[in-house]
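in:
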């Protein structure tokens, strides 16, 4: 029995559906196939005997046609019995449910003894090795939204940690209410640090530069040129600066 939070591998059995009626149907189908095989064998021997008698003049030609028709009917019955047997076997195989992917069980809405029908969810498995961040960006930043552009973000619940990804897709239309554009960021999660469903906030790295950084409040913009105070030899002096990005 799988439990929520348990890691599973692709192909692992996650549920077994009780199928006693199918087991009875399997035995019945196997018996029907054997009976059809025997009927076909009898019909083929009868056709051979009839052909020999017709060749010797003991029977009319139409008797051969009747014998051949009986063989064809037996062949059709055998094919039908084999098809029913294959269908029952497939249903029995479907009664053993296996994990379609490797991942972690995030939900198991059913328990042993529950009655299920086709379409009933048995378990939810999430592949945490690769995740997606769906975010919204102001339409003014459309020029910077290109595939493979780096994105760094923080996630609630992981204080002080920064995660990286890159833009994989950009929505072709903006939200009619907010006028923001959705982006889809591919996030490698090979170590399994992240869990799904959390809120995140980050930024798209549209441009990278190396520069000296100071607080905005340290820049004096009252003069003709921006200036900052610099300490040299124990004395403060005003130095003009070039303001970058």
């Amino acid at each position: 029995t799988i439990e929520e939070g348990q890691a599973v591998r692709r192909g692992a059995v996650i549920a077994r559906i009780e199928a006693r009626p199918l087991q009875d149907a399997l035995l019945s189908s196997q018996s029907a196939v054997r009976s059809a095989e025997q009927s076909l064998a009898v019909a083929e021997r009868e056709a051979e005997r009839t052909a020999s008698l017709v060749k010797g003049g003991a029977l009319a030609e139409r008797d051969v046609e009747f014998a051949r028709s009986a063989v064809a009917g037996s062949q059709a019955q055998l094919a039908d019995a084999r098809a029913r047997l294959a269908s029952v076997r497939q249903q029995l195989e479907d009664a053993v449910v296996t994990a379609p992917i490797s991942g972690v069980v995030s939900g198991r809405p059913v328990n042993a003894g529950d009655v299920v029908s086709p379409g009933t969810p048995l378990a939810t498995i999430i592949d945490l090795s690769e995740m997606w961040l769906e975010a919204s960006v102001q339409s003014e930043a459309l020029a910077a939204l290109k595939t493979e552009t780096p994105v760094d973000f923080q996630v609630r619940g992981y204080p002080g940690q920064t995660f990286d990804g890159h833009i994989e897709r950009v929505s072709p239309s903006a939200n009619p209410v907010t006028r923001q554009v959705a982006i889809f960021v591919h996030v490698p999660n090979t170590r399994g640090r992240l869990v799904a469903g959390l809120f995140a906030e980050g930024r798209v790295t549209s441009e990278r530069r190396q520069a000296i950084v100071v607080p905005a409040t340290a820049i004096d913009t009252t003069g003709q040129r921006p200036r900052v105070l610099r300490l040299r030899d124990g004395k403060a002096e005003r130095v003009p600066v070039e303001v970058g990005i």
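note: The CA atoms of residues 57 and 147 lie 85 Å apart.
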